[in-house]
User: What shape does this take?
Amino acid sequence: MCRLLETIRYENGRFDHLKYHRQRMKYSQKICFGLENEPRLLSSLQKAKEEQFADLENGLFKCRVVYDSQIREIRFLPYVLPVIRSLRLVQCDDLDYSLKYEDRSRLNLLFGQRGGADDILIVKNGWITDTSYCNVLFFNRKRWLTPEQPLLKGTQRAALLETERVETARIRPGDLKLFSGIRLMNAMIRFEDKLDIPMENVSW
Assistant: This one.
């Protein structure tokens, strides 16, 4: 059975971007199981929080939601922003991670090719997509651009696009010289966290 995953940022009593997480869960359940119903995400999160941590209000936590046709598990884990200073480009044309699967074995195999870099930047069919865990933004000294076709359409990415803080573009490895830097983002890493990588720290 298809097992899916949502990772939700929970900080100081607030869940981030639940609208986008619900949208992705609903779409994924429709694709995998033919369901049309709205996932009962907020009530499930609140119940899990009360059961696991009655006083879970302060600090930053990663809320890990595993589900298939229904929510199977919710866990709250303390979270610290990662340190990522370098990326290595890795080619993989047959990778499919259009849904956020719990099984990350293919991504983990690619991550093993990072060499001395902290993470990988995946190239699919000649186009830049994502790192192993993050959507990416590229700054051209005027505006921030994100790949038009990422491996996974993340929730932070969706929010930034909706508010027009970033734009999409088709970016090839040869285009990287046009940019001054890369910023990483995912459900836990916000745009304003400024997890930036200099272009000179990106290599094949």
About this structure: The helical segments are 18-33, 41-52, 105-111, 155-162.
